[in-house]
Design a protein that fits this description.
By secondary structure, this protein is an alpha/beta fold. It has helices spanning about 5-15, 20-50, 65-70, 120-125, 130-135, 145-155, 170-175, 205-215, 240-250, 295-300, 320-335, 335-375, and strands at about 80, 160-165, 180-185, 185-195, 200-205, 225-230, 255-260, 280-285, 315-320.
Length: about 375
């Protein structure tokens, strides 16, 4: 997903030459798949010949070991990969948790299957369920979590190379990550576009918010086609920037922090294998995820996480909520008080802004009502 300043230019190019833009997406994904196959073959050859033994960077496969490495001065290019689990403490459900996850609570929309609500073909025929859900989850109703602000702290300290997010709630932006800090791999509500390839008119967050909360199905002012937020549905390509950035970012990464994701959705999940073989990988999650296939793991390749085998040397699983894990890591780094102060200060700022916005809206409503009441009725004509 390009940042906001890049979007209009990108869409102008799509209006003029839509076909090459589509080809660019496909070629990027095909190229990424080809590189993954090459990585597999390299790992197989290396394992078979006993070549390229990876360097062990962590002195201990624990959160304490990660903290000591971060404090050593050798860790300067951290990438965070995050999913819905970092936003659950803000009140936003994740997707797959049994009983509480989003997919477990969609019965009221009468979908043929839960994932249909994010299927592009289903959306074009039946947009109502998605926009009803959007009202419940719309950005601006939630505050960033401790985990979001931990990433902001990494940025402020010059340690964050990039955050790759699966989330569409825009809380990373609210917390202070934007532009070059952020790759919104599955898109965002920040902008929207007409779904017609002949039109593709862009709309901003406020326009879409007005439509959603007025119970209107958003249609394009220009051609009357549906307008969809720029989130990536099943059946759509990921943003080109996702593929171009990962080629540059992951080889340089010296610590990968994965938080709040089940690592089940490709190609995002495959990013964990794109860092160097010596790069430590920390998972903060309620359960282990992203583990290598057991058979491939025995052969010493496959790229997935290895927390427990005799060959484990760089992967750490900290099983907890994302907020608790970030607080624990911040404590080990000596940042806990700074992080807690940042959260408190920023939440107070957001509350103040919300209060002012509500007060302004109430004042305008009262003024409009008073103005209407002060209009003198026209005198009735005498017969």
């Amino acid at each position: 997903m390009s940042d906001a300043s890049e979007l209009p230019k990108k869409e102008e190019e799509e209006e003029v030459t839509p076909e090459p833009e589509e080809q660019s997406d496909d070629s990027s994904e095909d190229e990424a798949a080809g590189e993954t196959e090459m990585d597999f073959l390299r790992n197989l050859l290396s394992s078979t010949l006993g070549l390229g033994a990876p360097e062990k960077v962590l002195d201990e496969l624990t959160l304490e070991g990660v903290a000591r490495y971060m404090k050593s001065g050798k860790c300067k290019n951290i990438i965070c990969m995050v999913g819905a689990g970092i936003s659950t403490s803000a009140g936003i459900p994740d997707f797959r948790s049994p009983g509480t996850g989003l997919y477990a609570n969609l019965q009221k929309y009468n979908l043929p299957y839960p994932e249909a609500i994010f299927q592009i073909d289903y959306f074009k025929k039946h947009p109502e369920p998605f926009f009803a859900l959007a009202r419940e989850l719309y950005p601006g109703q939630f505050k960033p979590t401790i985990c979001h602000y931990f990433m902001k702290l990494l940025k402020d300290k010059g340690l964050l190379s990039r955050c790759y997010s699966q989330n569409i709630d825009t809380l990373e932006r609210v917390a202070g990550l934007e532009g070059e800090d952020l790759i919104e791999a599955h898109g965002t509500f920040y902008t929207s576009h007409c779904v017609s390839f002949c039109c593709r008119k862009e709309y901003n967050l406020d326009w879409m918010k007005d439509k959603i909360f007025s119970d209107d199905i958003p249609h394009c002012d220009k051609c009357n086609s549906l307008v969809k937020p720029d989130i990536v549905f099943f059946g759509e390509n990921l943003p080109v920037r996702f593929f171009t950035s990962m080629k540059m970012d992951f080889p340089r990464c010296d610590l990968l922090i994965v938080m709040g994701t089940s690592l089940q959705v490709q190609p995002f999940a495959g990013l964990v294998s794109r860092v160097s073989k010596s790069c430590p990988r920390l998972l903060i999650n309620m359960e282990k995820a992203g583990q290598a296939d057991p058979v491939l793991g025995l052969l010493g390749f496959g790229g997935g996480m290895d927390f427990e085998s005799d060959k484990a040397y760089r992967d750490v699983a900290h099983i907890s909520t994302c907020d608790d894990g970030c607080l624990a890591l911040a404590d080990l780094l000596g940042w806990k008080a700074e992080l807690e102060d940042l959260v408190k200060r920023e939440h107070a700022r957001i509350d103040s802004q919300d209060k002012k916005a509500k007060s302004s809206a109430d004042s305008k409503g009262a003024a409009a009502k008073g103005s209407s009441a002060s209009v003198a009725p026209e005198p009735q004509k005498e017969e």
